[in-house]
TrEMBL record:
InterPro entries membership: Class-IV_PLP-Dep_Aminotrnsfr (IPR050571), P-loop_NTPase (IPR027417)
Gene Ontology BP annotations: carboxylic acid metabolic process
One Pfam family linked to the record: Sulfotransfer_5
Family: Belongs to the class-IV pyridoxal-phosphate-dependent aminotransferase family.
Protein name: HAD family hydrolase
Species annotation: Thalassotalea mangrovi
Length: 240
């Protein structure tokens, strides 16, 4: 039976590197941000490569759910989920069929990275408040104590954190998760040319860096508005 693991993250949060890590396991297939086209179609947002994204994926959430739950010929099916893509009309009851883990990052770091790709940023764009609401909703639906991992902890100790996640889901840790070949993947979303340059050049998780963060007042306000939600999840994080 296939284990379907949904990794719930906001943007600019090592989520693609995490997808690379799991995809490098011989027993794992991945899907990249399956609700992206649905989100663009129904939110009114306009993103880089809009046309390519809309043409590459189902635009109705029901079709996406069918895709996520369809039979798979693999032990693991890793689903890279973006929390800001989950609009309120999505029926989350399909989450009963999945295992879940939440990947978080300090909001100031997220905003700093996001505005390097898209100048304007809002609370909805970074998805951290939505991430906390989803954590509560999915926890209630599944009745599970869903694990949380912080990107800072992953970068400081990739093996320890990935081992802890694997142990939580009764999976064997595979050292192949610690490095991968550089380059693009067939599994990468249509938006990869705009967003994935750094991860395409990578061969593993980058070392943790504590660089100064300088935000405009508007950007800082977005980060501040998300801080309580981040801290609520941070308090639940796995500590190996």
């Amino acid at each position: 039976m296939t284990i379907r693991l949904a990794m719930w993250s906001g943007p600019r949060n090592i989520s693609t590197a995490m997808m690379r890590s799991w995809e490098n396991r011989a027993d794992c297939e991945v899907i990249d941000e399956p609700f992206y086209a649905y989100y663009l179609k129904h939110s009114g947002k306009v993103h880089p490569m809009q046309g390519e994204i809309l043409a590459s994926q189902p635009q109705q959430w029901q079709q996406v759910v069918e895709q996520l739950l369809a039979p798979r010929d693999c032990q693991l099916f890793y689903q890279k989920m973006m929390t800001h893509h989950m609009l309120d009309d999505v029926d989350l009851n399909f989450c009963r069929e999945l295992k879940h883990c939440f990947l978080i990052r300090n909001p100031a770091n997220v905003v700093k990275s996001y505005v390097q790709k898209i100048r304007d940023v809002s609370d909805e764009d970074i998805g951290i408040n939505r991430q906390w609401r989803l954590y509560q909703q999915i926890s209630a639906i599944t009745g599970e104590n869903i694990p949380v991992i912080d990107s800072q902890d992953v970068l400081r100790d990739p093996e320890g954190m990935l081992s802890a996640v694997c142990e939580y889901f009764d999976l064997d840790f595979d050292t192949a998760m610690l490095s991968w070949p550089a380059g693009r993947r067939e599994s990468d979303g249509a938006w990869a040319p705009h967003w994935y340059q750094r991860v395409e050049a990578s061969t593993g998780f980058a070392p943790y860096r504590s660089d100064p963060i300088k935000l405009t007042p508007v950007q800082q306000a977005v980060a501040d508005d998300s801080m309580d939600a981040y801290q609520q999840m941070y308090a639940k994080r796995i500590i190996p």
